[in-house]
Amino acid sequence: MEIRWYIGLAVALFSIGVMGVLTRRNAIIVFMCIELMLNAVNLLLVAFSKMHALSPVGLTNPSVVSNAQIFVFFIMVVAAAEVAVGLAIIVMMYRNTHVVDINFLNRLKN
Amino acid sequence: MDNVLQMVWLIPFLPLIGFLINGLGRNSLSKRMSGIIGSGVILFSFLLSLYVFFNVKGGNSHLAHYFNLIDINSFTIGFDFQIDALSSLFLLIITGVGFLIHVYSTAYMHEEDGKDYAKYFAYLNLFVFSMLLLVMGGNYVILFIGWEGVGLCSYLLIGYWFKNVNYTNAAKKAFVMNRIGDLGFLLAVFWLLSKLGTTNFADVFANLSKLSATDITGITLLLFVGATGKSAQIPLFTWLPDAMAGPTPVSALIHAATMVTAGIYMIARSNVLYNLAPLTQQIIMWVGLATALLAATIALKQNDIKKVLAYSTVSQLGFMFLALGTGNYIAAVFHVMTHAFFKALLFLGSGSVIHGMHHEQDINNMGGLKSKMKITYITFFIGCLAIAGIPPLSGFFSKDSILIGAFEHNKVVYAIALFTACLTAFYMFRLLFITFNGKFRGTEKQWNHLHESPSAMTIPLIILAVLSAIAGFVNIPALFGGSESLTHFLSPVIQQTHQTTLSHTTEYMLMGGAVVLILAVILWAYIKFKNYEPKEETSAFGKTLENKWYVDELYNSILVKPLQAIAAFFNTIVEKKGIDGVVNGVGKAVNYGSRQIRLLQSGQIGNYVLLMVLGILVLFIIQLFF
Question: pTM value?
Answer without folding.
Answer: 0.80
